[in-house]
């Protein structure tokens, strides 16, 4: 009651123009814990009068967190954008009108919209949502209904192209008066069907390609449109999701569609730093500006069935000078590959063929440049607000630098990439210079960079030492060179490989000794007594083995991995589960390779089948979290992502403790990864380990500061 009276008093002071008194009262209410949406509306109004735009924006955000359907807050957001971006201001007013059910206020909002249109400064177009239909009747109907329930009617048209469905969905579609429909008598493929939909769309409309196996949460398309009109150069935008590649998939302890849709309510919010630059976006939900479609044209239909046409189109847009943005404040639920998964072998064959077609079209293997390097990102340890300067040598088209720029909004990021064909695609992801770092004159000030990252390809060059020496003068005295130390260690352990003669001599000298070590290890594994396992671990403490023999025969390198797994298992559970899977290094290696293959399969294509294959293999060979952690480290390309994905697989099979164990190991490699920390906090709370939850929550707060 007291809070209600104070809110009434605050409203009265604002109405009377007593803003100084209102500010004092608002501050007092905040100190006493007032958090209602009405309070945030009134506080935002006071900040508007005081001219504190960003403080007002923060209040609007807090209000929408309380109620994401409050029309007053969208109206205030429109007023906030009016002086800086008329297109975004219009979109906010459109959203306010959609949520408003009070006739007098609707008239005010509508008048504000009309004024913006009449100003000539508003260039917003409605969206033609192009949905490709192929069976999955109920899911298709759910997709359409989710759009109808969450988007202003004036803001979109529905265009559906049915690719010869056989489950009766076409009968339902024909009965929908608000759908522009094309029913094909044969399957035209993804690109062909999408092109038909684009041609059927209203001529001026922006285009949204949307899979039929999606659910659109409230405000998701609104925030995508806000991203599309962030600036004139933006050509396309895409959302986060639960099922996709290209670093667009979120990871966490979510199992059902409803849990993800609840999460979407938290994601679809104003955010001061909402966008990450990308070269391409996954086509399951991609919003494209009409001007970009007119300039670039249609999707390339050479990619049979589906896959790679979205990547190809993104590269076409980027080449044409447009920016593509991943919107971290938009989420669309995706069931994922429902039709393609029905004929997996055919699907995998098409993926291989289409990948080759993309490579032939653009002249390089783009798969090498898709993902941000989480290993590099984990070594950037500054406060997120710090204005750091970073140079990556061998940066590809800048995926890691773009992620860095998103995580560190005040960062200046630069790249050097020898392959000119690749470097040109990163023209807006970072300041990338094309050329050979060893030969070019570098255009940077001395002692300018906080971090210099040496890419993996550079580390394999024979002149890497000279390159690092050349770069040192551009690194601050307090700066860090990432990648070089790892290379230095590898060089030292392979120092004998300076000539074929020395290499041959070294191998011959230690080859016999290496096989002696291998024989001893196999005897230990065969006996599997406490004494023999202790001996096995002692073998890997011998300096001669570590310095000279590991590189002589590959079996010893694998055996070294097994020793690390064994130590971890003994430390955790006082037993050695992994070693029970084989009587020799050869047998254990076969097990490890099977798990490796399943990890690669999962990285190649995120499907339920790939996840099931990995889980079945883990179960078949009793792979512990300790073993899994070591295998991920030596096998996975995106280790952080696979750690998170495997933890989710554990959770789906009621393996909460295993998921926790794996994520704790992941923190050894990625101690400041927000996603890992967030999931651990959630899991510890779920299992009643409040003290641990609070401990990791403190770590998370430190990382986020």
UniProtKB/TrEMBL annotation:
SUPFAM superfamilies: Nucleotide-diphospho-sugar transferases, S-adenosyl-L-methionine-dependent methyltransferases, TPR-like
Residue ranges annotated for the Glycosyltransferase 2-like domain, each copy included: 128-221
GO MF entries: glycosyltransferase activity
Name listed for the protein in its UniProt record: Glycosyltransferase
Family: Belongs to the glycosyltransferase 2 family.
Residues in Methyltransferase domain copies: 390-479
Superkingdom in the source lineage: Bacteria
InterPro entries the record matches: Glyco_trans_2-like, Methyltransf_25, Nucleotide-diphossugar_trans, SAM-dependent_MTases_sf, TPR-like_helical_dom_sf
Metabolic or biological pathway: Cell wall biogenesis; cell wall polysaccharide biosynthesis
Alphabetical UniProt keywords: Glycosyltransferase, Transferase
């Amino acid at each position: 009651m007291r809070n209600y009276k104070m809110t009434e008093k605050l409203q009265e002071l604002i109405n009377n123009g007593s803003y100084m008194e209102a500010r004092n009262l608002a501050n007092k209410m905040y100190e006493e814990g007032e958090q209602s949406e009405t309070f945030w509306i009134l506080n935002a109004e006071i900040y508007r009068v005081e001219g504190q735009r960003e403080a007002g924006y923060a209040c609007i955000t807090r209000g929408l967190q309380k109620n994401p359907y409050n029309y007053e807050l969208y109206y205030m957001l429109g007023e906030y954008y009016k002086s800086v971006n008329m297109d975004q201001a219009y979109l906010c007013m459109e959203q306010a009108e959609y949520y408003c059910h009070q006739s007098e206020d609707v008239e005010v909002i509508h008048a504000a919209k009309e004024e913006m249109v009449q100003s000539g400064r508003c260039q917003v177009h409605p969206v033609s949502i192009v949905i490709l239909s192929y069976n999955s009747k109920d899911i298709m109907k759910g997709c359409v209904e989710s759009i109808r329930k969450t988007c202003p009617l004036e803001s979109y048209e529905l265009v559906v192209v049915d690719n010869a469905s056989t489950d009766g969905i076409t009968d339902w579609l024909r009965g929908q008066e608000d759908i522009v429909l094309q029913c094909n008598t044969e399957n035209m493929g993804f690109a062909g069907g999408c092109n038909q939909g684009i041609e059927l769309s209203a001529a001026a409309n922006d285009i949204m390609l949307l899979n039929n196996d999606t659910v659109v949460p409230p405000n998701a398309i609104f925030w995508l449109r806000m991203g599309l009109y962030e600036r004139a150069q933006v050509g396309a935008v895409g959302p986060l999701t639960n099922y996709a590649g290209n670093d667009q998939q979120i990871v966490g302890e979510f199992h059902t569609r409803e849990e993800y849709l609840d999460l979407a309510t938290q994601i679809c919010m104003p955010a001061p730093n909402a966008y990450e630059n990308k070269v391409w976006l996954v086509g399951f939900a991609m919003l494209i500006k009409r001007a970009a479609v007119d300039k670039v044209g249609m999707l390339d239909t050479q990619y049979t069935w589906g896959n790679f046409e979205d990547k190809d189109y993104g590269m076409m847009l980027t080449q044409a000078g447009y920016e593509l943005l991943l919107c971290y404040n938009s989420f669309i639920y995706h069931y994922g590959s429902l039709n393609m998964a029905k004929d997996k072998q055919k699907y995998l064959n098409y993926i291989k063929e289409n990948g080759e077609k993309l490579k032939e079209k653009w002249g390089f293997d783009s798969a090498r440049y898709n993902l941000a390097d989480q290993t590099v990102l984990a070594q950037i340890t500054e406060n997120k607000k710090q204005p750091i300067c970073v140079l990556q040598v061998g940066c590809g088209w800048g995926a890691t630098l773009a992620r860095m720029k998103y995580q560190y909004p005040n960062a200046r990021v630069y790249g050097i990439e020898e392959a000119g064909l690749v470097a040109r695609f990163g023209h807006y992801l970072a300041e990338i210079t094309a050329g050979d770092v060893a030969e070019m004159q570098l255009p940077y000030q001395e002692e300018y960079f906080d971090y210099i990252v040496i890419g993996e390809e550079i580390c394999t060059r024979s002149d890497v030492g000279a390159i690092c020496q050349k770069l040192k003068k551009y690194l601050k005295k307090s700066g860090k060179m990432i990648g070089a130390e790892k290379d230095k260690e590898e060089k030292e352990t392979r120092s004998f490989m300076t000539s074929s003669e020395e290499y041959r001599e070294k191998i011959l000298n230690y080859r016999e000794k290496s096989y002696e070590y291998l024989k001893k290890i196999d005897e230990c594994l065969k006996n599997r007594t406490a004494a023999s396992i202790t001996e096995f671990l002692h073998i890997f403490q011998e300096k001669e083995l570590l310095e000279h023999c590991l590189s002589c025969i590959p079996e010893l390198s694998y055996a070294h991995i097994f020793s690390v797994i064994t130590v971890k298992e003994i430390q955790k559970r006082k037993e050695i589960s992994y070693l029970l899977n084989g009587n020799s290094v050869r047998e254990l290696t076969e097990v490890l390779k099977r798990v490796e293959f399943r990890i690669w399969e999962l990285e190649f294509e995120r499907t339920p089948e790939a996840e099931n294959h990995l889980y079945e293999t883990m179960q078949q060979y009793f792979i512990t979290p300790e073993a899994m952690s070591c295998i991920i480290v030596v096998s996975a390309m995106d280790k952080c992502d696979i750690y998170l994905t495997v933890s989710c697989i554990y959770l789906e099979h009621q393996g909460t403790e295993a998921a926790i164990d794996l994520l704790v190991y992941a923190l050894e490699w990625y101690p400041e990864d927000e996603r890992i920390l967030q999931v651990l906090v959630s899991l510890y709370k779920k299992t009643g380990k409040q003290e641990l939850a609070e401990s990791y929550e403190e770590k998370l707060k430190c990382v986020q500061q």
